[in-house]
Amino acid sequence: MKTIRNNLAVLKYVYRFAPLMILFATLHVIAAVIVSVSKIYIIYRAIDLVMTGANIDLLFASLLEFLIIIAVASFFRIFYTYYISVRYRIVYIKKMQQFLFSKVKHIDMESFDNPTFYDNYSRALRDSVYRGMRVFDELVRFVTAISITIAVGTIIILSDPILILIILVSSI
Asked: Global pTM?
């Protein structure tokens, strides 16, 4: 429980110092779900069109439509990973360092002679700058995985509930 509380406290600083990061992370999760669901739907649509004997042009048009959806969502995911995440990570680190240094100004110089205090102080400076982004990145990965699992599970349940039993049996 203490770990969860500490992680939530760290996430407050991410929200405070880089609030747009949360908006872009939310869009990243949505894009990841769209890509996963689109991949499943492309296969379903292609099989359906082939089984009904539809014109090949209709099949290619559907595939092109889904390819565009996946390309746009994938572009956003890549943009988030390699640009937004890096840019806001730098903003967060800069603001967190400024915050920590502003706190250090109010500490007595005598405290630095205490080895326990100095060890804690050094660890706080070293870890706190990067810890927030690591916790945030893990939270985004977790939420993405859960969202994709729920979306794919919903598709499976809606299309054929017996598939859930097959998946559970094969997993066991």
From this structure: 0.77
pLDDT band at 75 (very low <50, low <70, confident <90, very high): confident
Contact 42, 50 (CB under 8 A): no
DSSP letters spanning the chain = -HHHHHHHHHHHHHHHH-HHHHHHHHHHHHHHHHHHHHHHHHHHHHHHHHHTT--HHHHHHHHHHHHHHHHHHHHHHHHIIIIIHHHHHHHHHHHHHHHHHHHHTTS-GGGGGSHHHHHHHHHHHHHHHHHHHHHHHHHHHHHHHHHHHHHHHHHHHHH-THHHHHHHHHH-
- Each residue's pLDDT tens digit, 19-53: 888 888 898 999 999 988 888 888 888 888 888 88
* Res. 126: pLDDT tops 80: no
Tokens of 7: 């992680």
User: What CA–CA distance (Å, rounded) separates 107 from 128?
Assistant: 18
pLDDT at 67: 86
